[in-house]
Amino acid sequence: MSRPTKANIVIDMEDVDKDDEMGIHATEAKTSRKKRSVVWKEFEIITNSGDMKARCNHCKHNLAYKKGGATTHLKRHLKLCTPRKATLVGKDKGPKQSLLSFDVTEGDEMLSIFKYDKGKVREELVKMFVVHEYPFRMVDHEFFTKFCRSLNPKYEPIKRQTLKLDCMKMYISEKESLKLALAGINKISLTSDLWTSNQCIGYMCLTRHFMDSEWKLQKRILNFCPLEPPHTGLAIADSISECLIDWGIEDKISTITLDNASSNDLAVRVLKENFEAKEKLHFGGKIFHVRCCAHILNLMVQDGLPEIRDVIENIRESVKYLKLSPSRLYKFNEIVKSLKLSTSKRLILDVPTPWNSTYAMLECALENMSVFSRYKERDYNYKWLPSDEDWKRAAEVSKFLEVINDVTKVFSGRKYPTSNLFLRQIWKVRKMLNDMSTDNRDFVKRMTLKMKEKFDKYWGECNLVMAIGAVLDPRYKMKLILYSFPKIYPADDFQRHIDDVRESLEFLYKEYLSVDSQINSSMSSATYDSNPSQAKKQKTDDFDEWVITNSDIIPGNKSEIDMYLDEGVYKPGNEEYEDFDALNWWKANSLKFRHLSKMARDILSIPITTVASESAFSAGVRVLDQYRSSLKPETVQALICMGDWLRQDFGVELASNK
Predict the structure, then answer these.
(1) Nearest-CA neighbor of 308 among 349, 345, 355, 360?
(2) Which of 231, 234, 413, 550 is deepest in the core (most CB within 10 A)?
(3) Integer distance in angstroms from the first to the last C-alpha of the chain?
(4) Please, what is the Cα angle at 300 between 294 and 302, to 5 degrees?
């Protein structure tokens, strides 16, 4: 083996010098021993002007280093390195610097030390996803993580499986809290309805309704549980019973509101028998079953609309012809602009099921009535131009449907109305049917006859909840009953219904009176029996005799309900009449009518429609979309129920899907 020449040695040293000037350490011929100290993860060895240095990866500061030497001074530097501290924010290791934040308490800003709470962040994340119905997969999105870290660099991402588990844990916790709250409520009203998802799984929604301590109507979805087919009345009753037992409220149910399916009639009969066997049937079962008024109204209109299909056929075909082609619709809208019509409504084509789509179609078409004839002049293929007679008949039908639509809005309000408002709306519908039944036009008679048959089928017998609710409205009392019943029921039958309302009113009042008497009986007996010898007959003088002679004396044994009805109706101002809140009136007069006010708060809170339960199905459609159809039923129930609870607690409303 030949020895290296001097020339070779010089060349090698020049190469090393060049590498040193670039700050790169030359690779040694022999393999060096692996460095085991943790500091070398954050330092690199360089050669500067022939001297070996340890360079900090964070601040780029060079520290003295000798091969094989100690690293204590390097560790000391890492503890004090400011850039390194900044990079360690959000990590569990290394020194941490306290962050300051402003805590606003009752309008005063206070400087406080911010402490990152991982558990709190995950809790708020669950609430956000549940309340706003975000899909679990969103938590895995890269830019969602980036956004959260931009708000707080300490944010630690979680997986969607973890988020789902957190949701289930919070659902169990929130459910236990609601159970405790229900323990202090004596009477609860229920609404229930059925729905089939895109998974072809049947779900039953059960919603509770009650009045809180502030006399505010409240509702909470108790269950959104799967119901195996067939959906018989017995299966529905068993499922409802299981839910009530699970919540511990099987002895507190006063009413249940369902639609008019025959299976629901059987379910109510079974539930009523169960409650009666346990002697827990409130109000003697007189108002246990409440039929959904909105459903009855919908059935009534659906029966009548087929009789007028030929009346509005040309209008429907015209709208269909225009909407099938974008160019035709554009030409139609250009005519609207040229005529400067003050309407922003676009043409709507009705669909078979929801009757209000027919009303919307007619309303829009009538506002654009003058446009159709002008469009005919520009399109010779258009063959369905309505005649003047068609427009007149359409206007009559639209006027009729407008009344039904207004009543439906009251029935189906997002914040459901109290039971005192319904009887007056039903009377409006009956009055309109009575007026239209005398019309000589054939299409009006046919439509009215069909609707009256359905009206009499479901409201032939008095709806006691509606009637008693109206009596407990201080604006109406018995006056609305006495005025409307002769117009709603036949001449030989209306008095029977009036008497039934008054008797039921007395019966319910006595039930509340007996409950309060049992509570106070021990106190009362102690008061009167302790010193019987002190009970003396009160003496009267001239003043007492004068008062008796010259004043109307209220008998001491007169009941609160008699006093209430004898006082006359309450007349609010014109501006306050439509917004009058009967619950607020009873709250203000609760000391005057101590027993009757308790009865009023329970009766007025009874839901007359199943809208509260049906609204959950809109949430079901959103939660179980085509991308999340694999969710298990227990997960669906947790998301639907807890979403409803949290939205109620925080006053959040989701925009309805159009």
Answers:
(1) 355
(2) 231
(3) 91
(4) 100
